[in-house]
Design goal:
Number of strands: 20
Number of domains: 6
Structural class: alpha+beta
Low-confidence stretches: 1-50, 68-84, 732-740
Largest sheet: 5 strands, antiparallel
Strand order of the largest sheet: 2-1-5-4-3
Strand content: 15-25%
Distance between the termini: 118 Å
Shape: elongated
Helix content: 40-55%
C-alpha cells in the first residue's frame, strides 16, 4: 500500500518522504524502505549529517505522535461517547490534512488551506489562525471573514502586554470569568456573547478587549494550537449568529489541532533548515577559503568556487574526479589515508606545492587542514580539505629574512658601537662591536643601557647618559663625548649620539645609541696641544730670558751713550733719550708677550695666580669690575688642563665685554673633591636662549677645549640677568687620556 497519487507526484523529495511517514502513521502500515529513502532525500537537500540526523529524529517522533493521536481519536474519546463526526469522517479529515501538508509548498499556502478546511468543518463565517512569533506577538498568519478594521485592532496582540481571551488560551492561564466557557482541551467557547457581556462585572470586562463583541460576533471560540505539549498559537472562530459551535465541532477541531501543530512545526523546521542551507551555501561559495569535500577514496563530491578558480576551472569540473589523479603527490596521499584510517584531523602551515603537470608554474605555499567527516558511529565516510593561499605571505617573509640578513651584516660588521634601545633605555639589541667593547654577550633580558659595566661607577657619567636617553625619547638628538672602560681595562673616549626612531604615527618607538671611538683622535689632539703649549712656553721663556735680557742690555748701553752726549752738550743727546724710551716700551711688550704665551707657572697654584692676574689686568685695561673669587685654595697639577681652563675663562670674559657689554664680571674656581668647577658670570645683555645653530668661533673653541680635558661646558642666561658659563672638569684619567 502506498500514499495516493497526489503524494506520488512528489516522489524523490523531502515532502514525499514526510507524506509517506504521515500516511503510514495514519494507516498503521510500516514501510521498510522508508528510512533509507528518507535519509537519501534529506542528505541530497542538506549535505549536512547533523541536520539530517536531527530531522530524522523529529520525523520519528512525529510518527509516534500521530499514532498516539489516532489511538486517542479512535479509541479513547469515541468510547467516552463523543457523538461528533464518525471515525470515517475523522480519517477523511486526517487524510485531508496530510494531503494539504504534502501538496503545500509553503507554510502560508498550507495555513490558507487549513483555514478553508476549518471554515468548512465549523460552518463559521470567520476563521483566523494565530501563531506566536519571536517577539511574543500573536498575529493572524491566515484569516478570512474578519474586516480590515478588526484585523488592525487585533493582529499584533502581545502575550506580554495585552489582556484578551486569545492571550489567556495560548498562555494557558484562564481567568475566573473564563472558566464557565472553558473546555477540557483548554479552549474558550461562547455561543452567546451578549449573555456573557451582561454577566461580566465592570472589573471583569477590563480583562476582555471586547473587539469581537463590538463588531457583532455572537458565537466566539478560541482553540489552542499545540505542538506536542507546547502551545504555539490559536484557532480563532467567530460568527454573528448564536449557538454556532456545538461541543462535537469544538472537540473535533481540538482533535485535529495537534496534526496542524505538527505540520506547522515541520514547515517552520524546513524554513529554518532552508535558511540555514542558504546561509551555508552562500558561506561555502563566498568564504575566502578553498574548500573541497571528498569521499573516503578521495573522489571529489563538491568544491567551492574559490577552490575551482585556483586552476581556472568551474566547481562542476571536479565532481567525481579523484584528487590524486589530478594532483599526484605520494606524500600528501599518505597523509590523506592516515586521516581516513585514524579519524584524526591533520593541519600544516605554509606547505609548498608544485604542479606536477605544469612545472613552469612557480611553487606556491598553502596553509591547509584535512578534517574527517564521520558518521554517528565514528566511521569516516569522507574528508574536507580547507586551503588558504599564503604564497604572498611566504614571499614577504622571505624578503624580510633577506633584509634581516643584510641588516645583520651591516649592523654587526660596522666598527661603530651600536645598540637598539627601548624608549626607557632598555637594551633590545647590541651589535658585535658594542658587545665586545663592554665585554658582554647579547643580553638575555633587557638591561638598562647605563647599567653596562663599562660606564663604571661614576654617578655623573650615568646621570649624563640617562639625560641623553630621556632627551632622545622626547624626540631630540642627543650628542656628547663620553668615556667608557673597555672589557680589557682600556679607557675609551666615545663620541656618543642617541637618536629617536619614529613609527608610522610619528611617535618615538625606539632609540639608536651610536658611538664612535675617538680615543686616538683625542690623544693626538692632546699631544698636539701639549706640543703647542710647550712651544708657547719656550717662546715665552725665550722672549723673557733672551730678548728681554738683550733689550735690557741695549737700554743700559743707550743710557751710557745718552749721558756721554749730554756731557758734551751734543744735540744728539735728545735722540738717544728717545731711543731709550722706545727700548723700554719694547721691554714691556716683550714681557707682556712672554706672560701671554706662558701665563701659568708650572706649579699647582699656577692657575689661581694666573686667573687673579688676568682679572686685575682686565680691570686695569677696560676700567670695569673683574674679580677672581676662589672659594678656597685650588691646586691643579695638570698643567694642560689648567691651560685649557685659563683660555676658557679668557674667552668667556672677552665675550662678556665685547658682546654682552658687561661692566661686572666674576670668576670662581672651586674644588668639588672629584673634580673642579670654573664659573664666569657677568651682568651683560645675556646670551641668546636658545643658542642658534650658527654659534660663534669663540664658543666652539671653548666647547672644544672642555672636551679635550674630558669636561663639560654649559652656557646659559642667568635668571637674574647676564650670562653664566660653567665648565666642569674631573681631574685624573680624562686629562691623561687626552694627553696620551
Amino acid at each position: 500500500m502506498d500514499p495516493p497519487g497526489v503524494y506520488r507526484h512528489l516522489a524523490g523529495t523531502v515532502e514525499y518522504q514526510m507524506a509517506r511517514l504521515f500516511w503510514w502513521a495514519a494507516h498503521g502500515n510500516p514501510d521498510p524502505e522508508l528510512l533509507v529513502d528518507r535519509q537519501a532525500a534529506l542528505f541530497g537537500m542538506t549535505h549536512d549529517a547533523k541536520t539530517v540526523e536531527q530531522l530524522e529524529q523529529e520525523l520519528a517522533l512525529a510518527k509516534a505522535r500521530i499514532c498516539e493521536l489516532e489511538t486517542l481519536q479512535g479509541a479513547g474519546r469515541l468510547e467516552e461517547g463523543w457523538s461528533g463526526p464518525s471515525s470515517t469522517d475523522r480519517a477523511s479529515a486526517t487524510r485531508e490534512l496530510l494531503q494539504l501538508f504534502a501538496t503545500a509548498t509553503t507554510r502560508c499556502k498550507y495555513l490558507d488551506s487549513v483555514r478553508d478546511l476549518l471554515c468548512r468543518w465549523s460552518g463559521s463565517q470567520c476563521v483566523g489562525i494565530r501563531l506566536v512569533n519571536r517577539k511574543q506577538e500573536i498575529p493572524y498568519e491566515s484569516y478570512c471573514g474578519f474586516d480590515h478594521e478588526f484585523w488592525e485592532h487585533e493582529n499584533w496582540l502581545s502575550l506580554e502586554r495585552d489582556q484578551c481571551v486569545c492571550i489567556r488560551v495560548i498562555k494557558g492561564t484562564p481567568d475566573p470569568q473564563d472558566l464557565p466557557y472553558a473546555t477540557p482541551g483548554g479552549s474558550f467557547v461562547c455561543n452567546n456573547a451578549d449573555q456573557l457581556s451582561q454577566q461580566l462585572t465592570a472589573g471583569a470586562i477590563k480583562q476582555f478587549r471586547g473587539q469581537c463583541m463590538k463588531v457583532g460576533f455572537k458565537s466566539i471560540s478560541v482553540l489552542p494550537l499545540r505542538y506536542r505539549q507546547e502551545v504555539i498559537g490559536a484557532i480563532h472562530i467567530a460568527d454573528r449568529r448564536f449557538e454556532q459551535f456545538p461541543a462535537t465541532t469544538i472537540e473535533f477541531i481540538e482533535a485535529m489541532g495537534p496534526l496542524i501543530g505538527e505540520a506547522v512545526h515541520r514547515f517552520d523546521m524546513e524554513d529554518s533548515l532552508r535558511q540555514s542551507n542558504e546561509l551555508l551555501e552562500r558561506t561555502f561559495e563566498s568564504i575566502d577559503l578553498h574548500l573541497a569535500h571528498m569521499d573516503r577514496d578521495f573522489n571529489f563530491i563538491r568544491v567551492n568556487r574559490g577552490y575551482a578558480e585556483v586552476d581556472g576551472q568551474k566547481p562542476d569540473y571536479y565532481v567525481g574526479k579523484n584528487h590524486f589523479a589530478l594532483f599526484p603527490n605520494p606524500e600528501n596521499e599518505r597523509l590523506f589515508h592516515k586521516v581516513v584510517e585514524t579519524g584524526e584531523a591533520y593541519s600544516v602551515l605554509a606547505k609548498p606545492f608544485k604542479y606536477a603537470y605544469n612545472p613552469e608554474r612557480s611553487v606556491t605555499y598553502w596553509d591547509w587542514s584535512l578534517q574527517p567527516v564521520k558518521r554517528p558511529d565514528g566511521w569516516v565516510e569522507g574528508v574536507v580539505l580547507c586551503l588558504v593561499n599564503v604564497t604572498d605571505r611566504e614571499r614577504t617573509r622571505a624578503a624580510l629574512r633577506d633584509r634581516e640578513v643584510l641588516y645583520r651584516a651591516v649592523f654587526d660588521q660596522t666598527f661603530q658601537y651600536m645598540a637598539v634601545l627601548a624608549v626607557d633605555g632598555r637594551i633590545l639589541e647590541m651589535n658585535r662591536a658594542c658587545a665586545e667593547l663592554f665585554g658582554v654577550e647579547q643580553p638575555d633580558r633587557a638591561p638598562l643601557f647605563w647599567e653596562l659595566p663599562g660606564w663604571g661607577g661614576r654617578r655623573k657619567a650615568r646621570g649624563r647618559l640617562k639625560h641623553a636617553i630621556a632627551e632622545a625619547a622626547g624626540g631630540h638628538v642627543a650628542q656628547y663625548e663620553a668615556q667608557a672602560t673597555a672589557g680589557d681595562g682600556r679607557q675609551v673616549m666615545i663620541d656618543l649620539t642617541v637618536k629617536p626612531v619614529r613609527d608610522d604615527s610619528g611617535a618615538v618607538a625606539y632609540l639608536i645609541a651610536e658611538g664612535r671611538d675617538i680615543t686616538l683622535r683625542k690623544q693626538l689632539e692632546g699631544q698636539l696641544l701639549e706640543v703647542s703649549a710647550r712651544e708657547q712656553r719656550r717662546i715665552g721663556q725665550d722672549l723673557h730670558d733672551v730678548l728681554g735680557q738683550n733689550l735690557t742690555g741695549l737700554a743700559f748701553l743707550n743710557r751710557i751713550l745718552e749721558q756721554k752726549l749730554a756731557e758734551r752738550n751734543s744735540p744728539e743727546a735728545e735722540d738717544a733719550a728717545r731711543v731709550g724710551k722706545v727700548i723700554k716700551q719694547a721691554i714691556g711688550q716683550a714681557r707682556a708677550l712672554s706672560r701671554g704665551l706662558c701665563p701659568i707657572d708650572q706649579k699647582a697654584e699656577g692657575l689661581m695666580t694666573a686667573l687673579h692676574a688676568f682679572a686685575s689686568n682686565i680691570t686695569e685695561f677696560y676700567g670695569i669690575s673683574c674679580l677672581f673669587e676662589p672659594q678656597r685654595p685650588v691646586l691643579l697639577h695638570d698643567m694642560a688642563a689648567a691651560m685649557h681652563l685659563y683660555h676658557i675663562a679668557q674667552e668667556a670674559v672677552n665675550n662678556a665685554i665685547k658682546h654682552g657689554e658687561a661692566d661686572q664680571v666674576r670668576l670662581c674656581l672651586s674644588d668639588e673633591g672629584d673634580g673642579f668647577v670654573l664659573t664666569i658670570r657677568d651682568n651683560g645683555s645675556g646670551i641668546p636662549d636658545p643658542l642658534g645653530p650658527a654659534t660663534g668661533l669663540g664658543l666652539n673653541i671653548m666647547k672644544y677645549r672642555a672636551g679635550m680635558i674630558g669636561g663639560t661646558l654649559d652656557i646659559k642666561r642667568h635668571p637674574e640677568g647676564g650670562t653664566l658659563v660653567t665648565c666642569t672638569f674631573r681631574d685624573g684619567e680624562e686629562s691623561e687620556l687626552a694627553s696620551g
